[in-house]
Amino acid sequence: MRHLLDTRTLSRDDAILILDTAEDMAATQQREVKKLPTLRGKTVVNLFFEDSTRTRISFEAAAKRLSADVINFTAKGSSVSKGESLKDTAQTLQAIGADGVVIRHPASGAPARLASSGWIDAGVLNAGDGTHEHPTQALLDAFTMRRRLFGADSRGRDLDGVSVVIVGDIAHSRVARSNLWLLNALGAHVSFVAPETLLPYGARTWPVTNHHSLDEALRVERPDVVMMLRIQSERMHAAFFPNEREYARNWGLDDARLARLSERAIVMHPGPMNRGLEISSRAADSPRSTVLEQVTNGVSVRMAALYLLLSGERGAQPDPDPTSSREGETA
């Protein structure tokens, strides 16, 4: 795997490989010494042009647990704030010997541009670009679903037959898009639920069932997974719904809707949550909720992605078990 830029072009086999490798990484995180020597001598740059807490920290933890050297770069306080271009930044990273670049950018397509530009030889991993995609979030969501629905070790399994309802601000959500393509590749049935104003243009042509009523979607789809999305007010430049009270009443996962879910259904949220708007506190804190598990699993999934991108020679098939011959090593 040369780069990880999206899930739309990710095959089922490649997705399963990442998820199964994440199982190996998760197993190492149960040990007293959590670090592996796999990426010792590699340099990973976290190149974040947008604010982030969970994603940046998760990637940093993942790289460090693989023994890579990590450089954290933020646009604020850097030469970017003085007008430096993405090309100049990339060439600077090339000059310092970056092996991998984890990039978050407000412009859709920026990671793909970086990967194809020839400005840098490093593997590029998309940590979210505009309203386009956020592939590792979708992978950690799928990893969490697979573990919750099928058990702690579900190597080789896809999500065939699983019903997933994604609710909220679909129009501005790169998480929703990445989940749609990945979950379809893994065999799940995906439904979107949102007011008309928060469904993206062209969604009717995508492989998804669209609903405008959450109550109807819960009744018709009988979901195994309900994924609530944050209202991204920072990306909104118009009134997409009358007020927060109406949104919570019509599209929020409140206590009554939580009680109507099937016994096996789980509740997900990529965070940060707006409690009382898209999700009630009872739903967020219930045993059905996977919110904190998603954060934990994110480290294992990002370790897997970095390992598959950066271990061994470019284009070489990596050892499928990164722990098999180095169990006793520490770093």
From TrEMBL:
Q: Which reaction does it catalyse?
A: carbamoyl phosphate + L-aspartate = N-carbamoyl-L-aspartate + phosphate + H(+)
Specify where the region named Disordered lies, as residue ranges.
312-331
GO cellular component terms, A-Z: cytosol
Sorted keywords for this record are:
Pyrimidine biosynthesis, Transferase
Under which main EC class is this enzyme filed? transferase
Entry binding sites for carbamoyl phosphate: 54-55, 104, 134, 137, 271-272
Which pathway, per its entry? Pyrimidine metabolism; UMP biosynthesis via de novo pathway; (S)-dihydroorotate from bicarbonate: step 2/3
Q: Name one Pfam family in it.
A: OTCace_N
EC number, UniProt record: 2.1.3.2
Positions of L-aspartate binding: 82, 174, 230
Q: What is its quaternary makeup?
A: Heterododecamer (2C3:3R2) of six catalytic PyrB chains organized as two trimers (C3), and six regulatory PyrI chains organized as three dimers (R2).
Q: What family does the Swiss-Prot or TrEMBL record give for this protein?
A: Belongs to the aspartate/ornithine carbamoyltransferase superfamily. ATCase family.
Q: What is this protein called?
A: Aspartate carbamoyltransferase
